[in-house]
Amino acid sequence: MLKSILGFELRQQLGNPVLWIVATVFALLAFGASSSDAVQLGGGVGNVNRNSPSTIITLLSAFSNLSMLLVAIFVAGTALRDFDNRTAELFFTTPVHKRDYLLGRFGGGLFACFVVMAAVAIGMFVGYFMPWVDAARMGPHSATPYVWSLFVIVIPNLFFVAAALFCLAVSTRSMLATYIGVIAFFALSAVMETLTADLDARWIGGMLDPFGSQAIVNATRYWSTLERNTLIPDLGGVLLLNRLIWSAAAAGLLWLAYRLFRTDREGFTLRRKKPKSITTATAAAAPVTVPRVALQTDGRAQWRQFLHQAWFDTRGVLRGVPLLVMLGFGMMILIIGLMFADQAFGTELYPTTARMSQSIAGSFNLFLLIVVTFYAGELIWRERSMRVAEVTDAFPNADWIPLAAKLVALTSVVLLFYSSGIVVTMGYQLIKGYTHLEPLLYLQQMLLSTSGFIMLAALALALQVLCNNKFIGYLLMVVYIISRIVLGILDFDDNLFRPFGAPGVPYSDMNGFGHFLPGFLWFRLYWGAFAGLLLLAALLLWVRGNRSVLSERLAEARRRFGIGQAITATLLLATFIGSGLYVRYNTKVLSSDPPLNEYLAGDQQLDRQADYERLYRQHKGAPQPRITSMRSDVDIFPKERRVRLRGSYRLVNTHDAPIDVLHVEINRGLITHSLSFGERSVELEDPIQGVSRYRLKTPLAPGAELDFDFDLEYAPRGFGNDAGPTQVVENGTFFNNAAMPIIGYNENREMQDRNERRKRDLVDVPRMAKIDDEAARANTYLRQDADWVDFETTVSTSEDQIALAPGYLQREWVENGRRYFHYKMDVPMLPFAAWLSARWDIKRGEWNGIPIEVYYHPTHAFNVDRMIEAA
């Protein structure tokens, strides 16, 4: 009997198109991971080969961690198929043994998962032979690491996960409970990783990791590059014990599934309800008088129907035990994160609201991603899975009401998680004795953080409706999530084309959200309109009644597309295109003049860096004058985020020969108003690299000096694809003399990654100079164009702010509504200076007659006395 059931199950799985779709997707992901030079997962970086045994093992181990999805689809789905299809009684009326039935179902699902992982191995292997893969980073090909990984890592992992979810599925008869098991597993893994991160005995973490990844890391922790390129970990010690322990646990879970399995529909429950008996009084109840009603279909009636449906769906989700269980896991992750992340270098950090908001977002991001994905499928398919879809579809309500109600329910889930996190973190603040609670800031951070998840919920709902298959919808969401990661690694990070992308919004207690918020909101409007178009498409193709065939759905969509839908589509499309054009104008046009927020993908930035070295490395070591003094007049306009920088260098020729060419580099994001350093002619101007070369009419003789005057301006326009420069803000400006001109070739701009250099035909990465290289000793670690310098600056700012710079304050005054400060160093200093401006409070102290001053944000007076005491 076992052979017959297993054979039937194998035919079912191999004939299921979902299996081959999933296998193809996973194989393509593995192909991309192995063939893309940008993907360095597994250690294929530096001198470690991309096809080294350690890289192959780590890649296959990472894909096996994703097996939770496969098991949920194939193993748990197989366990519940007969009950979902109402065919269980047909099996259980035959003399089939429970053992044969369960093992047959389990074996078929496990085999399907193995087929997918085998496709992953094939995709990886094929990827290494692609012509675009850097041959210098490849070693000899061998099948041994694949076989070792499959039998030591992949199959035991699949066996454990399959047994755990199979046990959960057959005992609860609930796919949602299985999804909770998936989420719980991820949550417990995150908690366990946090708890074991600081353990001195790493073998404990290696034993507790059910996937064996930590055991492999411990076994290869101190391997050299040669060992990583040639060796496979020994199957012994902690690794062997880990595999045996979790394989035994899998067998125990499979036995538990056998013991808990029941042939009725109810499944395992802790307490069974007794059926209510029908009394005579109930049976003989008086007839019910049905009131006469008039059906209303106007806008007011539809709005009331929507509110009722939204409340019904939201209440059903929020009152469900599964959500409460998942919320409990989320709170556990957050609390443990708060407990173990409240120190920096041994110093306890204050639980400010800004820090607490970051903790909420960091703890819930991955968790909410999974919850939203799973609940989208449950909400869309709930009526059909409960066999009441024909009844609810017959209700006299508008087509948009069910979809909108489910979006509201998903939104409520997101808001519930975040608001619960707020309650937990506020309690944590009070326990720590921090009473400066900021509920308004929590609310603002919640709106910013949850906006992306709400659009993600719209995408998840739309995919479920459009593909009309729950598991394919889940798979497409996984592909979307992984593709965002892969596209980021491949430097495709333009938020204008990266779905639901937006620049970050840095927050500080001094500056608030500052100027970073408008760009974020424009990107949110842009992608919000796109999410609206997706929902409109889902509305048109919404399955109502028995019209589930694509041709019938398309015909129904044409019928539904009336004047209201046309107006909505036009408005959404106009918003999407209009906001997109405005975003592009800011990120591509305004930001490029000057190019402070200019968008360049990561590989484009590396190409430009390589071009700099290719064009100008020939001038490395060429005689250039040295800076001996820096003087500047700096005007900071905080509200405009603008800085005017007028300065002067004293240049000295310290070489034995005259210098007739001056190599000058200025940050290309600055506006150059003027340069003055005697008579010269322009030999080269490269606005892309910010490089200019001037031929001096009178060469600078050995020992001669030259005044180099400059007038520069920092004046950003528009907003960038990312958060953009953070140096100059409305309150809390901090920038340094990297904004000032550099004399000579800048070695700090050279590319360091040897693989990136080889891809761009550059020479080997420059090594650190030898200890007896006297020429190299002439430079500090900061710059190559200066030694110790005399420094003096006058800096102005808004009247309500204090400006700081190196040196002793010589004078302070107010003129024309601006506040001026004159600083001067009494001895030469290293060639590094910074200018600051903010609305500070000042705490003064002294030690043996030496004055001590601490400038701090008024609400951050926490450690000021301690700082003075330490100074």
Number of strands: 18
Low-confidence stretches: 39-44
Strand content: 5-15%
- Quickly give the structural class: alpha+beta
Percent helix, as a range, is 40-55%
Strand order of the largest sheet: 6-9-4-3-12-15-14
How large, in whole angstroms, is the Cα Rg? 33 Å
Mean pLDDT: 85
User: Which word captures the global form?
Assistant: globular
Report, as a whole number of angstroms, the end-to-end distance. 82 Å
By oligomeric state, this entry counts as: single chain
- Main sheet: strands, sense, barrel: 7 strands, mixed
Structure annotation, total helices? 27
Which terms summarize this structure?
single chain; alpha+beta; seven-stranded mixed β-sheet; four-stranded antiparallel β-sheet; 18 strands; 14% strand; globular
Describe it for me?
- There is one protein chain.
- This protein has 27 helices and 18 strands.
- The strands form five sheets. It has a seven-stranded mixed beta sheet, with no helix packed on it. It has a four-stranded antiparallel beta sheet with strand order 7-8-5-11, with no helix packed on it.
- It starts with a helix and ends with a helix.
- Residues 39-44 have low confidence and may be disordered.
Please render the helix and strand layout as text:
Layout: H1 2-14, H2 17-35, H3 53-65, H4 67-84, H5 88-92, H6 98-127, H7 144-172, H8 175-195, H9 202-208, H10 213-220, H11 225-230, H12 237-260, H13 280-283, H14 299-318, H15 321-340, E1 343-344, E2 347-348, H16 353-385, H17 389-393, H18 400-431, H19 439-467, H20 470-489, H21 516-540, H22 550-560, H23 563-589, H24 602-616, E3 626-637, E4 642-652, E5 659-665, E6 671-676, E7 680-686, E8 691-700, E9 705-714, E10 733-736, E11 742-743, H25 754-759, H26 774-777, E12 786-798, E13 802-804, E14 808-815, E15 818-824, E16 834-838, E17 841-847, E18 850-856, H27 864-870
